[in-house]
Amino acid sequence: MSEVVHAGLDSDPGEVAVTLPVVAVVGRPNVGKSTLVNRIIGRRQAVVEDTPGVTRDRVAYDAEWAGRSFTIVDTGGWEPDARDRAAAIAAQAEIAAQTADVVLFVVDARVGATDVDEAAVRMLRRANTPVLLVANKIDNQRSEADGLTLWSLGLGEPYPVSALHGRGSGDLLDEVIARLPAATRQAPAAGGPRRVALVGRPNVGKSSLLNRLAKEERAVVDSVAGTTVDPIDSLVEFGGQVWQLVDTAGLRRKVGQASGTEYFASLRTSAAINAAEVAIVLLDASEPISEQDQRIIAMVAEAGRALVIAFNKWDLVDDDRRYALGKEIDRELRRVPWAARVNVSAKTGRAVDKLTPVLRRALGNWERRISTGQLNQWLTALIQATPHPVRGGRAPRVLFGTQAAVCPPTFALFTTGQLDPGYVRFIERKLREDFDFAGTPVVISVRPRKRQDRKKNG
Known about the structure:
The chain is α/β, with parallel strands linked by helices. 33% of the residues lie in helices and 22% in strands.
């Protein structure tokens, strides 16, 4: 029933990918679903806050119990007759229940069964998926009687747990494992899907782009900024290739200045960038490039990831805005002139198909390697044509160069002395011009020869 494929991205090509069984956690808002997910996976991964509606999308995590691996899916609060954004959130929860192998239906035992809980039971019966009733917030033995009242829901025995303190979670997981089907094995695609992070300010269209590429509603979309909180991990096929896309929370400010839900969402966005190979930074083309846009772009560059800047909402850009945007790019993005750029509209689908070749080129350049012989021939010709400026009666010489790493391309220059920063930037610029490193940061490390080495050679 499940369709989540976990192919080890760093595994050997000969390894077999495993399709893990799926457990969906469903319930009305603020009954402790994300707290239970964190308890099961053993770390604070799902965003938790004492406010209904913090989780909005289906969010999948890897989990393990008693030697069995499975995928657990956190969902937003389900409500009947929901409208607008709440309706989209409820639809995601229903999809999770329909596609899971086992559903954990979480109820607040202190409150008891509500009309919303009873409506959710009817929805779950339509899904025709095995359901375990979780009586949450039973923190001690005296409160276990509260859980017994939930027999009235007609789902069988309630499992009393305290997601916050861990009480009863082991017994619940034993029952989950007993209900899970065996994992199935599949041959993976060679090398696994490429990892792409979708990042940007709130409400620039990240979830809309994910849904457009997936050709289905993978993430909740709303005009209210901040709909996505957790990173949403999806395997999506477009351009004849499967990609692993991560839709992240919109970043409003620096991580150190954020608080509450926004703080943890910012940390997870940063982690998603570090786990990705390439990041698509979405900018709202209809608005001026902001300081936060620049900060997000710098975050990707500093993480050493390939970078594609997608100017979204291009359908809203007129001639005047196009002229102003060109000036802003020259002024505000001058530190990343190498970033690949594409103009798209997630809403209309305009030029979305151009993302595939741009992503492939950025990733190809991110992995590009220049042989040592070719690099040194190029360096010799470059330095002869444009020598380093003379400082204090002498100029440092580049003795030798080598590419120390890829992803991103990293070069080490062994010299007789420290090079001027401007000359290092000149070398980087010429490297990009002659070897095509568009879409990727390039790192140049200058390693001056130590003084004692110069004495020995003298």
